[in-house]
Design brief:
This is ArsR family transcriptional regulator. InterPro entries: WH-like_DNA-bd_sf, WH_DNA-bd_sf. The chain has 185 residues and is mainly alpha-helical. It contains eight helices and two strands, in the order H-H-H-H-E-E-H-H-H-H. It has a domain of 75 residues: Arc Repressor Mutant, subunit A (Orthogonal Bundle). Helix 1 packs across helix 7.
């Protein structure tokens, strides 16, 4: 079993992140991933094995090509909208490892962008564009109010219209809300 620390170390590696995004939408072989990342296939076998071990990628298909078996890899399961949007109760328990892995990976990506933006701003005072935002707010709510607020936030994000698609960019919203009073349980 992989520890949270080992998992965070793994997903903070830019090569690992590039592999995960490479196979997000289209299943690919090691050769195809290497070509896209401008790398040698031999340099990807170890990271791909680590990704398979942690289930961050999966083998989607195997094809017999002569005497060789060509494997196709995917990370599509990490981007399943149903899991990202709302995974609770028994479904969350059954998929705890995938859910926690995905959450750590997503938060890490956003934190890396924020860190990069802050470091650039430190050296370039005129920079006014950020690729990541962080905000925190604490409020007193009943449990049912808390659930409703989370649902309203997701509903608001889904309802945004895209009038001028040429001006849009894809943004990821990772919403983690939690109870502050840890001693009540």
């Amino acid at each position: 079993m992989t520890s949270n620390y080992d998992l965070m170390k793994l997903i903070s590696d830019p090569k690992i992140e590039a592999i995960l995004y490479s196979v997000k939408s289209k299943d690919k072989t090691v050769k195809e991933i290497a070509a896209e990342l401008n790398d040698k296939p031999s340099r990807l076998y170890y990271p791909i094995q680590k990704l398979l071990t942690t289930e961050l990628i999966k083998i989607s298909e195997e094809k017999q090509i002569g005497n060789l078996i060509e494997k196709y890899y995917t990370s599509r399961h990490l981007f399943n909208e149903e899991e990202v949007m709302k995974l609770e109760g028994e479904m969350a328990i059954k998929n705890a490892a995938s859910l926690l892995t995905h959450a750590l990976w997503t938060f890490n990506k956003g934190l890396n962008l924020l860190k990069s933006d802050l470091e650039k701003t430190e050296f370039n005072k005129d920079q006014d564009y950020s690729r990541a935002m962080y905000g925190e707010m604490t409020v007193s709510l009943t449990n049912s109010e808390w659930v409703k607020v989370n649902e309203e936030i997701r509903k608001l994000i889904r309802s945004r219209s895209k009038e001028d698609l040429s001006e849009t960019k894809e943004y990821t919203f990772s919403l983690l809300t939690y109870e502050n009073d840890q001693e009540s349980h």
